[in-house]
Amino acid sequence: MRGRDWDDEDEDEAAPSPSGNAHEEERALKELRTVYQRADTAYAPFSCPASGECCQLATTRRQPWLWWPEWLLLARRHPLPPPRADGGCPYLDAAGRRCTVYADRPFGCRTFFCDRIQGPARQPAETVNALLVRLERLSERLLPSLKGPRPLLDWHAEAFARKGKTRP
Ligand code: SF4
C-alpha cells in the first residue's frame, strides 16, 4: 500500500466525485486502463525520442484534452503538483524532462505524434478513433453533464484553486 504523502488528504478535492458512486468509478477506471493498454499496443511499433519537448505546453501551445475518467485517474492516483513557472505540464519532473505520471498519462499523451517519431509510415488512426469513441462513452456514463474533453491545464487549475480554498 502506498504511504501517506503531503497531498493525500486533498485527493477528493482534486477530483470530487460527481457520481458519488465509488464502485462505478472504479469500474470506469478499470475500463480506462484497458483503453490505454490498447492505445499502447497500437503504438508499440513506433519509437519516441522521449525528449519531453511535447510536454512543454506553453512552448508548443498544445496540450492533451482529457475526459473526466482520465482526470479522475490522475487525481486519485497522484499528488496534485503546483503549476510550473515555465508553463510546462505540471506533471513533469523538476528538470522538465520526464513525465512523473507516465503509467497513467492521458490518452492524448499516448497517441501524440510528432515528426521525430519513428516507425511504420501509417498511424493507427482507425484504432485511435475507435478508442476515442469508447473513451467518450465511458465518460458519458460516469459524468453525463460533461459534453467534451477539457484541456489538462484547465482540469489542473480548477483542482489547484479548489485545493487553495480548502487550505488555511
Ligand atoms: S501528463 Fe506526462 S506525458 Fe502528458 S503532457 Fe504531462 S508530463 Fe507530458
Automatic annotation (TrEMBL):
Residues 1-14 have a biased composition (Acidic residues). It comes from the Bacteria. Residues 1-27 are annotated as: Disordered. This is Zinc/iron-chelating domain-containing protein. It comes from Melittangium boletus DSM 14713. The lineage of its organism: Bacteria, Pseudomonadati, Myxococcota, Myxococcia, Myxococcales.
